[in-house]
Amino acid sequence: MDSLPPLLPPHHPSTYSTDEEDIASEEHKFWQIPSSTLIISPSFQKPKLNLASQVKQILGCTLEQADEEIEREWLNRQG
Prior knowledge:
2 helices; rod-shaped; mainly alpha; single chain
């Protein structure tokens, strides 16, 4: 029968930390059972646009401006 992995010791802040200690601390927090039934939602953060979205947004604005300028020139020639 498979046994459960050993519990990690509680993390105590110290004046120095190593990567291994940071990883152990994060893993401990992950496996720690919440002490209350209160559900806390994560803080809302505006998602960052990835490069493709930024390019699409900039090119879209630029194309709209060019289209408006062409339409103005066309209307000026017609009128």
